[in-house]
Each structure stands twice: as structure tokens, then as C-alpha cells.
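Hi X.,

You mentioned you wanted examples for the new student's onboarding notes, showing what a folding record looks like when two proteins sit in one file. Here is a clean example. The first protein comes first, with its sequence line followed by its C-alpha cells.
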Amino acid sequence: VQLQASGGGLVQAGGSLRLSCAASARTFSNIAVGWFRQAPGKEREFVAGISGDGGTTFYGNSVLDRFTITRDNDKNMVDLLMNGLKPEDTAVYYCAAEAGMWSPQNHRQYDYWGQGTQVTVSS
């Protein structure tokens, strides 16, 4: 599975961004996808995750009610819509995929990772 994250950029506090994760996989609907982020000097943090069929989603506490994860299995895409962005959301955002047993918030359980996209929120 190959993953390509895109959509990052510079935005003012309160603004919105949509990140996209494009996947190459024969049976994308069998693969759970998560978004993580990592700021300089900090540990990798779980942001959001979605099951293969899109029926189950999880969010990190810091983004709950602001971010929304969705997927389109016909297009092999997972999006992360980020609203109400705050300076503390500044980080490199990674999408990751897991084809086996899924532990959404544990980054060590994910087998495949994209290259990351930078999100910078100015105050």
C-alpha cells in the first residue's frame, strides 16, 4: 500500500484546511486509515481514524468537534476536514494505513505511512 498525503499549507487561526490521503491498494475497503500529526519536539499524536467501510470513526480529544474524517472507497481517498484551526494544530500531518487488526490510536500498529504534509496555523 502506498499513501500520498496532500493539502497542507499556511492558514490563519479559525480557518479551515482539507487534507487528502490517496492510496494505492487493491482492496481499499479492507484498510483502516488514520491521521497522525507530529510537531517539533513532540511525540506523534493521533488525530483521527476511519474503518475500511467508513462506518466507524475515532478522533483525538484535541480535535473532537473540529475535524471530520471521511473516505471514498471508489476513489481510494481519505479526507480530513479541519475547521476552527488553532496555532497548536501546527504540525506535520501523516496518513497511515492498517490492513489487519486495527488499534486506531496506536501509531505503532499501522503498517503503511505517507510522506507527511505540513500544516501551519498562524495566530
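Then the second protein repeats the pattern, sequence line and then C-alpha cells:
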Amino acid sequence: QVQLVESGGGLVQSGGSLRLSCVCSGGTFSTYVMGWFRQAPGKEREFVAAISRSGAVTAYANSVKGRLTISRDNAKNTVYLEMNSLKPEDTAVYYCAANPSVLISRTRYDYWGQGTQVTVSS
């Protein structure tokens, strides 16, 4: 059974930075496309970023391009989300997800973590 555990969330001021981590266990991490999603209060969950199995290809939501960076370390079974220049509208629960596929997807993921809260104060 694949398990994903996120960490690194917290409270930060507008313009600040955070680094989220997601550790994968119970599966073969290097065979999964990995993604980050977020859900703000009263809103639907939305795609944030995704990374290919090798890490060579990434994709981002327009709202986070240039501020958030996804990366992965297959030796550590971990995917990261580096978050810079944070804005109050980035406040949400952030989830990592795994997709046993070759191609990056913005929608189809089979495994999900429990989420980590990110709060950006103005």
C-alpha cells in the first residue's frame, strides 16, 4: 500500500518562503509521476505542480509559476515544493499525490497524502 506523508507546512508572512516535503513508502517511488495540489477553505482542490518520474519535466499552474518549484529525490523517495514570494491567496491545505504513469497529469492521481496546512498572513 502506497503511503504519502507531507510535512513542512506552517504560518508565514506574505513574501516569505516555505519548503514542503512528501515522503513516499510502500511503492516504487521512481515509477510515479508526482504532483502537488491545494485546497483553500470553501474552494475545490486545484492542481499546483507536477514532476515526471526522472524529474526532467515539470508543469505548473499559472498562478504559481515563477514562485513555486517542484523537485524530487528518487534516492530519498521524496518530492519537494519550494514556495517563495508567498501570498495570502496561497493559504490552503497542500496535498501530494502519486500517479503510476509515464506522462505528467494535472488531474489523474491514484494515491494521496493527508495534507499539510500552509497559512500566509498579510
